[in-house]
Amino acid sequence: MSIFRRPHYTSEITNFIEEMKEKKPTLEAEQRAGRALLWDKHLDRSLLEEYSEARVPMQPYVYQTQAK
User: Fold this and answer.
1) pLDDT (tens digit, 9 = 90+) per residue, 6-65?
2) What single Pfam family name could you report for this chain, choosing any that match (predicted)?
3) Which of 16, 31, 47, 67 has a C-alpha 20 to 30 A away from that of 55?
4) How far is the CA of 48 from the CAs of 38, 42, 43, 54, in angstroms?
């Protein structure tokens, strides 16, 4: 036996996640569906350009009133 060979180690967290996946096989699909609701969006580039062009430049000091 080699001195570099060690027994296979799995952490408590890895064991917990594997156990959860065994108990609920649909877990990964549900996570992907939840992610798709918030993050996986297709953006309209033309609208993004319009939004950036419509931005009003900010004053150097935000709370200062404009002198007339």
Assistant:
1) 778 899 999 999 999 999 999 999 999 999 888 888 889 999 899 988 888 877 887 877
2) DUF3460
3) 67
4) 18, 12, 8, 10
29 burial level (CB within 10 Å; 0-12, 13-18, 19+): exposed
Domain boundaries, the chain: 12-54
Both tokens assigned to 37? 């609701």
Measured distance CA(34)–CA(40) in Å, rounded? 10
